[in-house]
Amino acid sequence: MLAIPAFRRFWVGLGLSSLGDWAGLLALTALANSLAGGGYADRSFAIAGVLFLRVLPALVIGPLGGYLADLLDRRVTLVVGSFLRAAIFASIALVGTLPWLLVATVLVEIVNLVWLPTKDATVPNLVPRARLEAANRLVLTTTYGAALPSAVLFAGLSVLGDALHSTAGWPAESPALLTMYAVAAAFAASGALFAGLVGAIPAGAAIPPEDRVGVLRGVLDGWTYVASTPLVRGLVLGIVGAFAAGGVVIALARVFVADLGAGDPGYGVLFGAVFAGLGAGMWRGPRLLGGVTRRRLFGLALVAAGVVLLTLSLVGDMVLAAALSVALGFCAGVAWVTGYTILGLEVEDSLRGRTFGFVQSLVRLVLALVLAVAPLLAGLVGAHRWRLNDEMALTYGGTQLTFLVAALLTMTAGVASFRQMNDRPGVSMIAELRQSRSARGAYAPRGVFVALEGGEGVGKSTQARLLAEWLTERGYEAVLTHEPGDTEVGAALRRIVLDPATGELSPRTEALLYAADKAEHVARVVRPALDRGAVVITDRYVDSTLAYQGAGRDLAVEEVEPVARWATTDLRPHVTVLLDLPAEVGLSRVVGPDRIEQEPVEFHERVRQSFRTLAAADPEHYLVVEASGAPADVARLVRARVEPLLPQALRVTPTP
After folding, report:
1. How far is CA 132 from the centre of its chain?
2. 29-33, 135-139, 165-169, 610-614: least confident range
């Protein structure tokens, strides 16, 4: 991801901004504590006021921020928002009064209401679609991972501030003032970096001029879109559920560890465990179940989070509680990064800011409610002890009961999200999980791999040639290849499997011959070209084996696929272009049919439906094109899908 210059600049700017945001929170609460006076209650109220005011703007005017993120130029918003926050934090240090600190806290959050959804909506504009999940993992890990270096920065500057105060009498009010200036500098530096993204982020508003309406109507349109779109509705429900589950643990962690006899050290361990799991889930989670589609993985992660929380409500051991907290954070992290990736892929650009703004506002609202209601519910229930006999007693308190209620609600949200977003109806989750353990698809980190698939007579060879010519004109090395037969071994195998004189072959023999061709093809042609940074365009690949030898010959796909994946070392195309035509139409274009083309229409219709099923199961890596159109029109659609992947390829000659 960091090889993409625009994204690298954006990521560094985001890192500085996140560093400033977390360090700013620490500095605000520390300075509020210093400015409030000597009374314990005054200091407590001042810190509580800062925390409350950070949430209040999102609850009152949050949806407006998402609308402005779509209405304003996104690069300008990122730049201006960063410099505004720099100025506000610098003013807090210069003014040095508690009232202005509270006002400035509100102003910073108002800027964030527009800046944050703009940031999230910008990521899909900077990276290829196939790399959006990786980009989101990096963005979210940086955003939340910045909390640790921010704490180190705050601690170091606080020590320096104390030393300066004791030796030179500055800063007079609080050592936290030094952090305020550092935060302002971090935001200003991030703004300067975002200013350099000219051309990388589309200029102007994301909302087309003909679609612009009044502010209230624009906000309502965003809400209506979320409410009326099953996919987005399921995502919002799930993301809120994931944060609610984590919020319950954070809200009750201190009381829970006291029940376990762990005290403040246990509280710190449990708090850190949740965030450690959250980071691990965001970074690594989606890769563990590569064979499960994102939409199903999202609901599965939520249900798993509910199961972990349910288990947590039943334990009475601190070590086990810490391990379960890591698992809970991991599941929530998987749901969070998966949900953000789906939103970036599925929501159109003109609505993306409002959607992210709505999600962020709703998350803050739910977190505020959870942080308020969870301790209240736990306190109302209290602790209860049941003596089972003279030697055994069972203690169960309001904290555990609240965990139990939250677990049931989280599992309900997960099931509801799964049902609304299920993109593989009829395929059991157990079967998909079993498949995911063996489906560790490998995507080449260098070069671009494009496969053209489809039935007979759909025009794969024509589109492969047109794509190769276009890539060559743009200065890329385009390797045009095909299966079977593009190696010496493959040519011999091709004569066997396609020559009508061969006669009838056992379906298993046919499948193994095709697998042998694929093994030689990948080893001799595809892998070396990708390693050079070329764009490899293959006419047929593994999907043809699954469709022809699986569905066509009635072999079990779960038997055919492992053989084909093993033969190709599980190398997957970055994008598969499926050219779709009714079987009868495609066969009418064939001249001099080979052994496979001579099969009846029913055979080829089964093949076609198998291709369509494969594409529907993984829409991120497929482009389905109606192949009855003019070749030039089809070629334009193919080029538009391949072009965002080209930063991975090596340009060998300058663009004319």
Report:
1. 7
2. 165-169
